[in-house]
Amino acid sequence: MGWKWLNRLAVVGRPQAVGMMQAESRLLLLQYQQQPDPALLQQLFLRYADALYHFLLKQSDAELAQDLSQQAWVQLMLHAGSYQGQSSVKTWLFSIGRNLLIDEWRRQRPHAEPELLEQLSDPMAKPLQQLLRAEQLADLDQAIQRLPLLQREALLLQLEDFSLAQISEITGAGAETVKTRLRYARQQLQHWLTPAEEESNDDR
After folding, report:
1. Degrees (nearest 5) of the Cα angle 40, 96, 92?
2. CA angle 52-54-57, nearest 5°?
3. What pLDDT digit, counting tens, does each position of 103-145 carry?
4. Helices 149-158 + 175-193 axis angle, to 10
5. How far apart are CA 97 and CA 103, in angstroms?
6. Which parts of the chain register pLDDT below 70?
């Protein structure tokens, strides 16, 4: 099996189902603003906690990802009233998580902050599991970790079913910049993951 599936990353997903979940989640959070019922928050947690944790885990370690995930949910509870419904709840939550991650990087590497900020400001797992066998997923995971920071971040967000506009909102990068990062990421993964003999055949 080749790796032509990489060209499908931009179109994988079920827009109608995703849109319905986003609308339901938005309503849950707006209701939580009016009445902070833990049951409402629990529904959001069940929907997005694993996704947020794994997004952070791909860019840190298990302990830090767990800590930042918890902090993100605390921030959501404390600042639920600031949510205006202009973005999806998942986009807003991931933005909180990403900002916490950046703050932690700044704390751990204070002398490298200018370089770090330059990197960060230049900005499905389930669908992939349906497309690939377990051993291929392991190869893919290792390859994703080799990508440059900003390309990896954009790809991980896309694999969480975020649109270009949502990735742009989360990272603070323009849509064209996000598209470029995703294109380079897919090209690099295809280069790394395509067997040499298949590349030779494609070049004929």
Report:
1. 60
2. 110
3. 888 787 655 444 444 444 333 333 333 334 444 556 777 888 8
4. 100
5. 10
6. 1-18, 109-138, 195-204
